[in-house]
Amino acid sequence: MTLKHVTGLLCAAAMSLALAAGARAEDKVVKIGVIMPMSGGTASIGAHAKAAIEVAMDIINNAHPELGNLPLAKNAGLAGLGGAKVEAIFADNQGNPATGQNQALRLITEDKVAAVFGAYQSGITLTSSAIAEKYGIPYLNSESVAANLTERGFKWFFRTTPIATDFAKIYVDFLADLKAQGGKTDNVAVVHDNTEYGTSVANTISAAFKEKGQPIALDVAYPVNATDLQGQVLQLKDKKPDVIIMISYTSDAILFAKTMQSLDYKPPVLLADDAGYSDPSFIKAVGKISQGVFNRSSWAVGPSGSPSAIIADMYKKKSGEEMDDTVGRQMQGFFVLVDAIDRAGSTDPAKVQAALKATDLKPDQLMMGYKGVKFDDKGQNVLASGLIIQLQDGENYVAVWPKANAAKAPMLPYKGW
Amino acid sequence: MRRLLWLSVVAAVAIAYPLLLSSPFQQRLGALVLLYAIAASAWNIVGGYAGQISVGHVVFFGCGAYAAMGAYAKFGLSPLFGIPGGIVLAAGLAAVIGVPTLRLSGHYFSMATIAVAETMRLIVTNTDYLGAAVGLSGPTVPRNIFDLSFLSSLPYYYLFLVILAITLLITWWMANSRMGFYLRAIKDSERAARSLGAPASRTKLYAFMLSAALTSVAGALYAMMFGFVDPESGLGILISVKILIMAALGGAGLLFGPLVGAAILVPLEEISNSWLGGKGAGLTFVVYGAIIVLIARFQPGGILSLFKRRAKPNVDKGAGHAP
Amino acid sequence: MSFVLVQVIVGGLLLGAVYALFSSGLTLVWGMMNIVNFAHGDFVMLGMYVAYVVYTLMGGGPILGAPLATLVLATLGVIVYFGLIRDIMKGPMLAQILGTFGLALLLRYSVFWWFGANFLSMPQDIVGGTFAVAGLRIEASRLLAGVVALLVTFGLHLLLTRTSLGSKMLAVAEDATAAQLMGIRPDTMQAIAWAIAAGATGLAGALIANFFYIVPTVGETLAIVAFVTVSLGGFGSVPGALVAGLLIGVIESLSGYLIGAVYKDIVVYVLFLFFLWFRPQGLMGKM
Question: What is the reported pTM?
Answer without folding.
Answer: 0.90
